[in-house]
Write a structure and sequence with these properties.
It contains 13 helices and 2 strands; from the N terminus they run H-H-E-E-H-H-H-H-H-H-H-H-H-H-H. It has about 325 residues and is mainly alpha-helical. It has a single domain, classed as Arp2/3 complex 21 kDa subunit ARPC3. It is globular and about 50 Å long.
Amino acid sequence: MHMADGLISGTVGGVMAAASVAIIAYSIKRIKSDDKTIPMMGVMGAFVFAMQMINFTIPGTGSSGHIVGGTLLAATLGVYPAIIVTACVLIIQCLLFADGGLLALGCNIFNMSVPFVVMYTLIFKPILKNGVTSSKLTIASILSVVLGLQLSAFGVVLETTASGITALPFLPFVLAMQPIHFVIGIVEGVITAAVLIFVYKMRPEILEDKEVMSVKVLAVTIALLAVLIGGGLSMFASGYPDGLEWSMEKVAGTTELEGSSAIHETMAEAQKSTAFMPDYNSKIAGIVGGALTLLLAVAIGFAISFFSKKRTA
């Protein structure tokens, strides 16, 4: 789902970057960061980073998928922290691992956060309004993830079509993107449900919108899982192209499209200068990326908390 720079024009990249900055700024203004939320922002960011490294095969298609994590983050942290943490994950992936284009970073942040927090608000929360059960969590997770991923995939198609620089016509591209991401969404929905049921068993108040007295045990557990997944299980990820690359190959015959304009070349050179582990070319890439995501999310959380307390004082 990570868009490369070759899919979009400089204009579309600039517009989506501005939109994402505005959404992040609004989220920072609305977020209620405290000593309980901050560590969870960090460990959930590390966990989602690690989980995104595991591509699972979609049988019979020659394609693979990975979780986006937007619904999972919104359910455990809230809408505004979820947007911030998603941005942290994508910034680390883009700048340090060259995963997703620098010009397309605004598109990726928007596509992988906004549709999911919208579906969380419209679908997930209403289903759990009258009480949380494992069956309700499963239904809410699958529905909100599937619909969120459908919107996200459609956003990729619209941004690519609006750019008009690739051999990816709207109708063939959308007919390839939507079905494969529907299947990927079902798998992610099941994974999201399993994680949320686990969280609910440990700290039910997190999903019941009650005051959380302590998240230390849960935070440590999720952090350890992030290390296990990023440091070990990620090495068994599927080698098949993901849903976006698979769709591109079906329509244009290639999984890689490169832009030739000056802005594309400038962004490519800038990304090369920051990406010290391009394409995760190290056995410890998952651990390093997860740790850096955790630090970035926690740093932002503390900064928000500090300035919020300062304004109050």
